[in-house]
Specification:
alpha+beta; 3 helices; 9-stranded antiparallel β-sheet
């Protein structure tokens, strides 16, 4: 269950943290710190639970990035998805096509300290255990309730994840209220400290 949750939350923008393309370089902080043109849980005037996919596409076009986006609108699926240059991802739920989750990879650095100054303390921390025991590498996410958000943090080459004020936020994910299924083993926030992988 935990691995499936983590995969859903992070694969929304697949390899976004591995490189920057024309869209990724234009994301900036996505309004997360600057509130330009809007702040959490809004990204480029797109708000999960409020914005329909057609209007979201209009916003991507207005920001000049839609030519680098792909629309996956399989009529057999319950979902439509737009991905842009491995930097932005939007998923909407049929039949009303309201965006229920959006994710972006900021090109402007965001630290955990800055994130907490914006959103307050998270409800819990989820750490995924290393998939390869011989090559320990942990990943962590901070989960927030108000607004419903998940921040995926930089990976660390260690079996235990340590959160520092300077730890980088690699991905920002906003959810429609009630859309996120929280993973089992999400540890209570204990400040800047070490967190053990979920069982």
């Amino acid at each position: 269950m935990n691995k499936y949750y983590f995969a859903l939350a992070t694969l929304l923008i697949a390899a976004c943290s591995s490189g920057r393309g024309p869209v990724g370089n234009r994301v900036g902080d996505g309004g997360f710190l600057s509130s330009t043109p809007c702040g959490p849980p809004c990204f480029w005037n797109i708000v999960p639970g409020e914005t329909v996919m057609a209007d979201a596409i209009d916003e991507l076009q207005a920001h000049g990035v839609y030519d680098d986006c792909e629309l996956d609108a399989d009529p057999r699926s319950d979902f439509d998805r737009v991905t842009c240059d491995f930097a932005i991802a939007l998923t909407s739920l049929k039949p009303d096509s309201t965006v229920y989750v959006l994710a972006f990879s900021p090109s402007t650095p965001i630290t955990v300290e800055q994130a907490l100054a914006t959103l307050g303390p998270p409800r819990c921390v989820f750490v995924l255990s290393p998939l390869l025991p011989d090559h320990p590498s942990t990943s962590a996410q901070l989960l927030f309730d108000d607004p419903p958000a998940t921040l995926a943090l930089e990976s660390q080459s260690a079996a235990i994840y340590t959160i520092h004020p300077s730890t980088s936020v690699w991905e920002v994910i906003y959810w429609q209220a009630g859309a996120r299924t929280d993973p089992l083993g999400c540890a209570e926030w204990a400040g800047y400290s070490q967190y053990f992988p979920s069982p």
